[in-house]
Amino acid sequence: MSTLAIDKAGPSRKVKYGSMSRDRAWALRWSYFFLVLFAIFFLTPPIYMLITSLKSSAEISAATNPWWVFHPTLSNYVELLTSNQFLRFFWNSSIVSLAVVLVTMLISVPAAFALARMKFWGSTTLATGVFLTYLIPDSLLFIPLFKMLAMVQDLTGITLLNRWYVLLFIYPTLTVPFCTWIMIGYFASIPKELDEAALIDGASWLQTLTRIFIPVALPGLIAATIFAFTVSWAQFLYPLVFTTSVDQLVLPVGITTTLIKGDVFNWGQIMTGALLGAAPPLIIYAFLMDYYIAGLTAGATKG
Amino acid sequence: MAEVALRKVVKRYDDVEAVRGIDLDIADHEFIVLVGPSGCGKSTTLRMIAGLEDISDGDIMIGGDVVNDVPPKDRDIAMVFQNYALYPHMTVAENMSFGLRLKHYPKAEIKARVTEAARLLDITDLIDRKPKQLSGGQRQRVAMGRAIVRNPKVFLFDEPLSNLDAKLRVQMRIEIKKVHQKVRTTTVYVTHDQVEAMTLADRVVVMNKGRIEQIGTPNELYHKPATRFVAGFIGSPAMNFIPCRLEDVGGRLQIRLTDRIAFPLPPARAARYNALPRTDKLLLGLRPEHLTESHAHLEPGVETFDTVLDVTEPMGMETLVYFGLEGTPICGRVNPNAGAKDGAPMRLAMDLNNMHLLNEATGVVL
Questions:
Q1: What's residue A292's pLDDT?
Q2: Taking all residues of chain A, what is their mean pLDDT, rounded to a whole number?
Q3: Which terminus of chain A has a lower count of CB atoms within 10 Å, N or C?
Q4: Quick check: bond before B277 cis, omega within 30?
Q5: Any idea where the domains of chain A sit in the sequence?
Q6: Would you say residue A219 has pLDDT above 90?
Q7: Which CATH code, of 3.20.20.60, 1.10.3720.10, 3.40.190.290, 2.40.10.240, is assigned to A76-293?
Q8: How many CB atoms neighbour CB B236 within 10 A?
Q9: With contact defined as beta carbons under 8 Å apart, do A205 and A141 qualify?
Q10: Is the model's pLDDT at A302 over the cut of 70?
C-alpha cells in the first residue's frame, strides 16, 4: 500500500541535477526495475486466469497458444453466475466474511484499547501473548479445534459441525490476535495527553474509545478491517475441514470440490470462479485505500 | 472558582519519591506558578491536582472538598497541555465544546460559550478549521479556549508555551495574563522557565527535588531568596556566588573575598551578620546588576576593585562582563558606554547594600 503512495508522489517532484539527484535517479531506476519485475511476477497468474476464463473447454484442451484467446466466450461466466450452487458459495463466503469482520472488530478494538491504555497488572505480557497465539499455524490447530467443537456439539446438542456459522467461531482465532496487535500499535501512537484531555473533559473510557480513539485511529481500523476480510475470504483449510455439505461451503472450497469431478478439471469454470472470487477484496481495497493513506493524527499535537 | 490546598502530598513511584510532602495553599482567583528544573516534581504535582496521577500520601482539596479519590472529570478542572492535545478529527468549535457536549448542555448555551471564548482568544475566524490547519500559537489558543468554555473551578497549565518559538512565547504569555485578568479563575501553571514564572505569577512556588524551596511573590523571590537554589534559579544571568569569610579588622566587620580583596560591610549588614562565627565558610551572593562599572561618586556601601575581563557580551541596553575571581566565574552588568572590552582591565563597583550572605554547607541565605 505504501508503494502506491510513493509512486503517486514520485514523478510530480522536480528533479534537480547534481550528485544527490544522480543517486536518486539510480535509486529510482532500481525501484522501477524491481517494481516491474514484481508486477510481472504477480500479475501473470491472474492474466492467465482471465485468458483461460474466456475460452471454451474445447479451446483450453486444444494445442493452440495458451496465451491467446482465439474464440472468446462468456459462457463460463454465464454458467457460473446462473448456477444456484455458485451463488450459494458466494453468499456463504460474504456472510461469513462480513460477520467475522464484525466479530473481530467488536473484540479486538476494545481489547487493543484496554491493552494499550488501561495499564493493568500483566497487560504487557497479555499483549505479547495475544500476538504469540497468531504465530501458531492453522494446520496445527484444526484437529484440536475440530475435537473441541465436536465436544461442544455433543454436550449442548447444538449442531455446529458442517454448518457455515461454525466458521464464525473458528476464523476469529486467526483474525482477532493480528487485528488486536495492529490496533494496539495504532492506539499506542496516539499521544497520551489526548486521552487525558478527554478524561478531564468528562469522557468515560468507552466515550474516549468511541469518540476519540476510533476516529483518530481510523486508518488502523481500516487496515485491520481489510486484513480480517481478506483472511476470512481466502481461508481454505478451516472451511474444508469444518464444512462438507455443498450448501454449507464457502467459495474457495466450493470451487475446488464441485468443479473438480474425479480427475476431470473444469478449467474454464475454475478460473472464472477464482477470478470472480478475487473481485470483492479488490473492490474493498480500492474503496478504502484513500482513507487508509490519509493520516488523521496530523495536528493533534506539535509533531 | 475555588481555592486549592495541598496537605503533605507525596508521590511515590516504587522506591522513588517524586514529590516529598508538599504543603501549598492557593487562594481563590490566584495565579500560582510552579517552577523548577526538570525532575523537580512540578508536573507530577499538577497532575495530582488534575487527578491524572494518584497521590501516595496526603490530601488535595479543591474548594474545601478532599478530592483524593475523585476522578478528573468530577473535579471541575480544566487543563492545557504542553503539546496542546487537541482532538485532531474535530474542528476548533467541536474541540472547545467536547466537554460541554459530553455533559449534555443545551445547544444554545454551548454555542454562546464557544463564541464568547473564541472572541476572548481572538480565534473567531478559525472556529470551523481542523487543528492541522492551525499554527502552533493558534492551537495553543484553542487549547485554552477548550479550558475556558468549561468555566471550571481551576485552570491547570502544564508548560503550555514550551513548544512555541521565543517571540510567540512572549506574546502568548501576555495573552494568558490578559485572559486571567478577565476570567479570574484560580490557576496553577507549571513551567521550567523562570521568566515565565516571574511575569505571570501572583505567587511563585520554586520546587527542587520533590520539595518546595520557597513560596513568594516574584519580587520576594528575587530580592529575598531563602536558599541558594532559589537565589541561583531566579534571575538571569544568575546570581554570582563568591566564596568568602568574615573577619574583624579594627573593630569593624569586613568580608574577605581573596587575599587581596576585602571590603568593610555597610553598617546595616554588619549588624545583621555580626553574630555569625568567623570560621564559617560563606558565600557572597551578588546579582550581576550589583556589579557595575565604577564611577566618581559612589554611594556608601559600594566598593571598587580592579580586574581583567575575560569576555564581554554587548546586549544593547547593557553589556555583560565575565571575569574570574580566584577561579570563581563572575558576571557583571555594565553600561554599554563604560568601555568594557574582551581581555581589558576594568575597575568595577560592588554594591554590598544588596548583597546576600549564604552558608556554603547548608545553602541557607543568612
A1: 61
A2: 85
A3: C
A4: no
A5: 2-53, 76-293
A6: no
A7: 1.10.3720.10
A8: 11
A9: no
A10: no
Query: Residue A298 pLDDT > 80, yes or no?
Result: no
DSSP-assigned states of every residue in B26-89: E-TT-EEEEE-STTSSHHHHHHHHHTSS--SEEEEEETTEE-TT--GGGS-EEEE-TT----TT
A137 interface with B at CB cutoff 8 Å: no
How far apart, in whole angstroms, are the C-alpha atoms of residue B47 and residue B81?
Answer: 11
- List the domains of chain B with CATH numbers: 4-226 (3.40.50.300), 240-359 (2.40.50.140)
pTM value surpassing 0.90: no
Alpha carbon B7 to its chain centroid, in Å, reads: 22
B168 touches chain A (CB under 8 A): no
Of B77, B132, B163, the CB nearest to A298: B132
Closest CA to A205 of A126, A119, A105, A118: A118
* Least trusted range by pLDDT, from A115-119, B67-71, B289-293: A115-119
Identify the DSSP state of A17: P
- Distance (Å) from the alpha carbon of A203 to chain B's nearest alpha carbon: 7
Contact A303 B83 (CB under 8 A): yes
Report d(CA B135, CA A101) in Å as an integer: 39
Task: Using a CB–CB cutoff of 8 Å, tell me whether B102 touches chain A.
Answer: yes
- Give ipTM to 2 decimals: 0.82
DSSP per residue, A202-241 = T--HHHIIIIIIHHHTHHHHHHHHHHHHHHHHH--HHHHH
